[in-house]
C-alpha cells in the first residue's frame, strides 16, 4: 500500500456551492432553512442529493426507513464500507449547515478522490439519515437509531406527527420508503462532520474540534404532593406546601451541576403548580429535570444526589414524592483509533484543534454503538444553531472537510 497523501485538499469552493444550492430548498426569509423530515421539501433535498450522486457515478440505495447510501466502490468490495454523512432535515427555524454540512462534506470527499483518481481499498458510502432532528417525528435520530438496532423498524415507521401522519406513510408518499433492509451489515468506520453548535471553538480560535464523545442525558418527571389549604387560615407551621419543597429542589438541582463543574449541566424546564390559585397553598408541584454529563460515572453520581435531595426535602416538609425516569441516554464514547485519525488529519494539515465533547446528540452517537466512530467539528458564529442566523465560514467548512478526507483515507486505505 502506498503512503497516504496527507496534504490532499478538497475543493472548498465546490463544497460551498453545493451547501448554498441545498440551502435554497426550504429557505426562509431570514436566511435559514425549514425542511421537516419526510416533507415535500425533504424529498426535494433528497432528490437533489441523489441526482448529484448519480452524476458522480455513485451507486445509490435506500433502506426501509428512508436512509440513503451512495457508494463509491473500493478495490476490495467485500470489505465493510467506511461510511460518512449526516442529515438533510432541519429544525423549523434551522440553518444552512446543521446536517447538510456533514452530508455534503462526505460527498465532497468522494468528488475529490475522483478528481485525483485515488482508489481506496474499502468502499466509501455517503449517508443521509432520516429524521435526525426529531422536530416533526419524535424521537430524534430515527434513521440511525434503527440502523444501529436502538429502535425497531415498525416502531420508527409508526411515529406520528401532529397531523396524525406516520413517518412510514410520509416516506412512502415522497418516494423514500426504500426496499433495502435497514443495517445488518458491518461498517468499517463512521465519520460525521458537523458545525459545533456551541461557542468553544470560536472562543478559543480553534479551527477543528476533535470530538471524543458526547454527553449522556437523563430526563425525569418529578411530582411533589403536599396539601392544598386556605392561604389565610393555615398557620405556617401546619403547612405542607408543595411549591416550597419544589423551590428548594430548584436550588438543589442547580447546585448539583455546579458541584460537578465545568462539564455538568442541569435544567428544570417545566414547572407546574396546582391548583394555581392566589389564595390556596399549592398542594402539588410537578417539574421536569434534565441532567447531562459526558462521564457515565459522574452522571450516575448526579442521579444519586438528585434522588437523595428529593427524598430529603420530601421528608423534612412532609411531602409525598415520586420520580419517573423518562429517558436514559448513556454518554457515547467515540473510538480511540477513529478519534486519532481525526486528530492526525488536523495535525498533518496544520490546523489548530482541540478535543471536545459534543453537547448535542448526533447520528454518530447511535453509530458509535455498532461501528468505530468519530466526529469532526468546525466553529459556527457565536455558537448559535437551530436558528436561521446559523453561520459558518467557507474557510472553516473546507478545513473540516479536509480533515474528514484525511480521516476517511486513513481508515479506507489508499492503494
Ligand atoms: Zn445536526
How would you characterize the overall build of this protein?
With 415 residues, this protein is α/β, with parallel strands linked by helices. The protein has two domains: 12-215 and 331-412, Zn peptidases (Aminopeptidase, 3-Layer(aba) Sandwich), CATH 3.40.630; 216-329, Alpha-Beta Plaits. The chain is 34% helix and 21% strand. The strands form three sheets. The protein has an eight-stranded mixed beta sheet with strand order 1-2-4-3-5-15-6-14. Strands 7, 9, 10, 12 and 13 form a five-stranded antiparallel beta sheet that branches. A two-stranded antiparallel ribbon has the order 8-11. Helix 3 links the parallel strand 3 and strand 4. Helix 8 runs antiparallel to helix 9. The chain starts with 11 loop residues before the first helix and ends with a helix. The mean pLDDT is 96. The chain binds zinc ion. Zinc ion (ZN) is lined by residues 86-87, 98-99, 132, 194, 362. Zinc ion is lined by residues 86-87, 98-99, 132, 194, 362.
Write a concise keyword list for the protein shown above.
single chain; 415 residues; alpha/beta; Aminopeptidase; Alpha-Beta Plaits; five-stranded antiparallel beta sheet; binds zinc ion
Strand order, largest beta sheet: 1-2-4-3-5-15-6-14
Q: In whole angstroms, how far apart are the ends?
A: 5 Å
Sequence of secondary-structure elements = HHEEEHEHHHEHEEEHEEEEHEHEHEH
Tell me the structural class.
alpha/beta
Q: In total, how many beta strands?
A: 15
What is the global morphology? elongated
Radius of gyration of CA atoms, rounded to a whole number: 24 Å
CATH-defined superfamily of the largest domain: Zn peptidases
Number of helices: 12
Strand content: 15-25%
Helix content: 25-40%
> Main β-sheet, in a few words?
8 strands, mixed
Low-confidence stretches: none
Overall CATH architecture of the largest domain: 3-Layer(aba) Sandwich
Number of domains: 2
User: What do we call the CATH topology of the largest domain?
Assistant: Aminopeptidase
Bound molecules: zinc ion
What's the overall average pLDDT, rounded?
96
Name the CATH class of the largest domain: Alpha Beta
